[in-house]
Queue: 3 jobs
Job 1
Amino acid sequence: MEKIIITTSDSVSGIVVGGRWQAVVKLLPEKDAVIITDSNIADIYGDDFPDIPVLKIEPGEKSKQFKIIDSLAKKLLKAGIDRSGFILGIGGGVVCDVTGFLASVYMRGIRAGYVSTSLLSQVDASTGGKTGVNAGSVKNVLGTFRQPEFVICDTTMLRTLPDDEYLSGMSELIKTGIIGDRSIIDLLENNTAAIMRRERELLTSLVSKAIRYKASVVAKDEKEAGLRRVLNFGHTFGHAVELFSGVKHGYAVAAGMKMATLYSYRKDYISRKDCERITDLLKRYNLSGDINIPPEKMEKMIVHDKKRTGTEMNFVFIKGIEKPVVEKIPVRELIGFYKDYLKGIVVI
């Protein structure tokens, strides 16, 4: 078991990796605590939940809407939760986003913590303090920065994930290896069978490495003013894919990472060897889907991306493994590259 601390200017957050999630009961206040979870997680783990009120949401992105926040806030009021209250989110990325956002705005902010149940949320969504809900079809346009008091990442829970959910999380793990810790890439390449068997010790090591890197970035740039933007590698095209096709977040980001890697290669930022290494790794974990969105629709979705400033986009390239770089790229240039990709002009 490992405990990783994220310290920012006004908060301290502790992430426990490898411990058993049931120990969360020791971290809760004696009163005025509630659980937010989804119906799938409640069915699997509900018998072991702490003996406090449980508020359920439906699984999936449809619960990341302001009307759900409004409904949950009314339930907190009815339960008598005041500014001394505590919300425990038990679930994956959607539950963590909803819990964190609600905790950050309810009575101008109450305490919260997470039990992170999916690989995607353990390596990404539950760590770093970003919260977000969607506005219509625009992803995470309403959000706050709010560090949870704690996050528990019990990798035993990953055994109950459906295969597509597990591989979706693998995409964000690969992303972290590409931009920040090449040892993750080495482990993913050399232990594929064991990782696909979801061996606990190996997963605990991988999740710890990913969180340590993200913690180092967040501690330096909590509000994404500069350095933290590198964590968006693959997300510009990826968010468009997710919105257009409805595929799971990790699969969309994997498609976006493939595009960003090819774009980096076209600019002569990375070698053919690194380009092939990344694309081969995505294939190894069944994350090599192509993008085939009409260019005019791609442009429309990119224009609504939070990373856009005016007519330019903060786009994350790589100049090698562990060497991400953010550049402002005109949206018209991004779309030009995308059109060439669709025509088959962009190749390794």
Job 2
Amino acid sequence: MVRYLMKRLLMMVPTLLGITLVSFVIINLAPGGPIEQKIVQLRFSGAAGGNDMGVSEEVVEALKKQYGFDKPIHIRYGIWLKNIITFDFGESFSYEEPVTTVIAGRFPVSLQFGVISLIMTYLVCIPLGVFKAVKDGTKFDVSSSFALMVLYSIPPLILGILLRMFLAGGAYLDLFPLSDLYSDNYFEMGLLDQVLDRIHHFILPLLCYMIGSFTVLTFLMKNSLLDEIRLDYVRTARAKGLEEKTVVYKHALRNALIPIVTGLSSFLMVFFAGSIIIEQIFNLDGMGLLGYRAALDRDYNVLMGLIFFQAVLALVGRLISDLLYLVIDPRIDFS
């Protein structure tokens, strides 16, 4: 087990290097970089120092040196690798702040929604999927499947608009706030009122965050348990006279949870969870909008910072997912 763990940790290094190298090359070779955008701004402002609103070579060279583009791409990548050892991801071209500061400012928003949506989804979907498997073919199973498929078919954009239209703003009902994370007088409230205010603002965007994975996880749990119930070892357990609850919940359920654990490989990604559409609709300044704006502005340092953190979390999450297999089924041997 220890040998397998060390092997996986060592394999993460070349994998992470490959991800960052490909990303760095693609991002830096994409047209319309920060220098080109700065040149356009100088042309419009007339402060470029060239003729006919052009840009002089001196200005272009100064910009390249300022943004670090005066060196070949492989040297720039080597410098970037050297800097990230000390967690120095450079400075954001757009925000003119260190990348870590920019990401840290949006981190709490995505963390809150990511963690809560993950916990709520698994707490609801796993019991619901198990119950649907036990009640397979009944009216409850059919009606709940229909409801889940209807919810799954609604795009997050449409769902967000519908929730705001019917439940917020007062056009129909005024049960929830239209946007933002908290009220204007949030910092004047007591602790309990602040918690309730946060929950009040969380409900609508949280529904949009959860709706996509809710149906998938429920059906995955149901179908996985149904597959296990049909296997020979379950028939043997029944033939021995074991109670149905013991057969389903003790024997079949443990093996049925293995595919669910596979989905947990991305559970660490909740720390950087973000949705451009949801954050735009509900005015949430999280990771989704940060990545979108960084891509539009060609803010290379921010993009590479986001890619690096997400890659590390994905690799570590996958390793933890494999280790969780041992908790569910001790017969699995990674040696």
Job 3
Amino acid sequence: MLAHALAPLLYVQRDEWFPLQRVVAVLHPTRPVIAYHLLWQDDVNGSWIPFTVPTDEEVVWVGYDSTRAPTDLWTYWHGTLLHADWRERGQVAIDVQWGKHGSLPHGLIESDLPSIKKLNDFYAFTWLSLPDMWLGNLTRRGPWCFCHGYARYRDFSRELPLSGRLDLVVRADDAREALGAVFGRPYSRKTPWPTAPVPGR
């Protein structure tokens, strides 16, 4: 019940090509934090490279207090953990980047993103990586380009609630076996838990 109640609402970029396939919620056994592992059908880049994992795993974490209200949100943004204070903000919400599925706390100020990991940098890369996308279409059907402007790249308007989409809820510190069983093997193993402290119960 707790995992469903705190499951985020995703705001997916409106032109997103690849569907969300599976979702696993992992409750930490001793810390008040839940990891939501998201398995997307594929990533827009690198699909043609031999032995590439043919899916894209992302993860977000929701911290909560003794009343089971959300207090903290962490998202995985291309190797960097982003954090947002979520006290008194209600429904946890995530913006999902086109094609690569990097996760942003909804309403994040773009200038707060790490250097060389700004959203407009990734938008520019969609044009620089066109040959990579074209090669990807040799191995699976995908987009040929992001054929729109930057304003559209930032249009996170397609709502996708996770609450009714949880394929598995598990309580574990190490959930690799459960994730492998649901996601298949191999899968991309992301950081299991945020390192920043979470509030006590």
